[in-house]
Amino acid sequence: MSSTTWQPRTGGDPEQACPIAPVVDLVFSRWTTPILWALHEYGRQRFVELERRLVTITPKVLTQRLRQLERDGLVLRTYHAEVPPRVEYEITELGHSLAPIFAHLAQWSAGNLDRVEQAREDYDARQRPPRGR
Amino acid sequence: MSSTTWQPRTGGDPEQACPIAPVVDLVFSRWTTPILWALHEYGRQRFVELERRLVTITPKVLTQRLRQLERDGLVLRTYHAEVPPRVEYEITELGHSLAPIFAHLAQWSAGNLDRVEQAREDYDARQRPPRGR
DNA sequence: CCGTATCCTTGATGATACTG
DNA sequence: CAGTATCATCAAGGATACGG
After folding, report:
1. Residues spanned by the domain of A58
2. How many CA atoms lie within 13 A of B103 on its CB side?
3. What is the number of domains present in chain B?
4. A62 closest-nt by C1' vs CA
5. C1'-nearest nucleotide to the CA of B7
6. Residue B88, nucleotide of least CA–C1' distance
7. Quick check: is B45 in a domain?
8. In chain D, which nucleotides are within 7 Å of a protein Cβ?
9. Which residue stretches of B14-56 are H helix?
10. Can the peptide bond before residue A19 be classed as cis, meaning omega within 30 degrees of 0?
11. pLDDT tens sequence across A5-16
12. Entry's SUPFAM superfamilies (chains A, B) (predicted)?
């Protein structure tokens, strides 16, 4: 039944004393954030809808991530035995409890992302020009 | 001068309409969270100290991540031209502004990580035993 | 429609050795 | 001490084709 034995990134190391490592693995692994966002933003939707929103994702990876999120209790999958089959995904209450954190991140972005951009320019300007003075 | 042309994970896709994708790349890339945490928790410290705290990290990767964080303005690097050389890293004010988000995540962890664990057990229990009833 | 099965590529990481 | 250079590895991700 598929060899999807997903191992968390921190698997090798018991604890590097970073208390939020587990939740970071959970929520901020590749694709999971956009998926959760799409489900939160546009509500319950079918596989294809998600696929179309996350433009560059492949069905294989989308399935992998959705299964993982379902297993972690953040997403609920509902299978309707019709022809053609219909499957709907929605965010669970547990998944929804992440919303404030997402909002917090969005807020930080709005206020500080330009400072990051500025820092990058400064850094590059300092390193780049072999032309000193 | 090294070919460290680091590309963000969302590089290929202009925007998949997930507004927090940039900040996720910035803060939750591999190793960045533990590094920021260590700097925030134990204050300014030298390269080796960080290396020892992040048990499994290699000097190469640690350097890469520190450079990235420095470029993004989240970490400040100070070089002391002594013998032996001494380099100290500390978190910047911009980096420090992430602290509430980290706290928020730690709080969510404390309150919900066991629910995730429970969800996993339930899911596995439902899938695993081909022996129904 | 909703996936799964294969094959393959690639980029991040680890290991190791070596400088200023 | 604080890295850098080089090589080897390896698993996540992408491409493609097919099935219920």
Report:
1. 18-126
2. 7
3. 1
4. C3
5. C11
6. D2
7. yes
8. 1-6, 12-17, 20
9. 21-27, 32-42, 47-53
10. no
11. 333 444 444 446
12. Winged helix' DNA-binding domain
Closest CA to B113 of A4, A63, A21, A40: A21
Nucleotides of C under 7 A from a protein CB: 1-6, 12-17, 20
In degrees and rounded to multiples of 5, residue B80 shows phi and psi of -105, 115
How many degrees, rounded to 5, is the angle at CA B89 between CA B85 and CA B93?
150
Nearest CB to B55: which of A16, A109, A115? A16
Tell me which residue has tokens 């700097």.
B39
Is A53–B13 a contact, with Cβ atoms under 8 angstroms apart?
no
How far is B47 from chain A, CA to nearest CA, in Å?
16
Show contacts of A68-72: CB within 8 Å, 24+ apart.
A68/A6, A68/A29, A68/A32, A69/A32, A69/A35, A69/A36, A69/A95, A70/B123, A71/B119, A71/B120, A71/B123, A71/B124, A72/A26, A72/B116, A72/B119, A72/B120
pLDDT in tens, A78-132: 999 998 999 999 999 999 999 999 999 999 999 999 999 999 999 999 886 654 4
The verdict on a CB contact (< 8 Å) between B56 and A24 is: no
- pLDDT score for A78: 97
Considering chain B, what percentage of its residues have pLDDT values greater than 90?
77
